[in-house]
Amino acid sequence: MPGISPGGSKCIIHYEKEKESTMRKKILATVLTAAMAVSMLAGCSSDSANKASEAAATTAAETTAAEESKADETTAAEAKMQET
Q1: How confident is the model over 4-51, as pLDDT tens digits?
Q2: Nearest partner of 55 among 43, 44, 47, judged by Cα
Q3: Which H/E stretch holds residue 20?
Q4: Is the full-model pTM beyond 0.70?
Q5: Inter-CA distances, 18 with 12, 27, 42, 69, Å
Q6: Average pLDDT, integer, range 58-82
Q7: Rg (CA), the chain
Q8: What single-letter DSSP state applies at residue 57?
Q9: CA distance to 50, 53, 55, 59, 60, per residue, from 46 (Å)
């Protein structure tokens, strides 16, 4: 047959394997790039998480102060009752 060498089928197989390998590399690169982008966005958005934790700490401090104030009022009321 003219134009076909005896080793021609080996070249085609080699080309197909190389093409498949290149495609795998491209997919892997895309997946890794997407993972890096997601991690960057998650890292940069931690500012809102800090605000939420600060708000929780402030609320806890206010609750503790209110409980201490209530305990002081109760102690003062008990002291008044003992005086009379």
Answers
A1: 555 556 777 778 888 889 999 999 999 999 999 998 888 776 555 566
A2: 47
A3: helix 8-44
A4: no
A5: 10, 14, 36, 76
A6: 69
A7: 36
A8: H
A9: 6, 11, 14, 20, 21
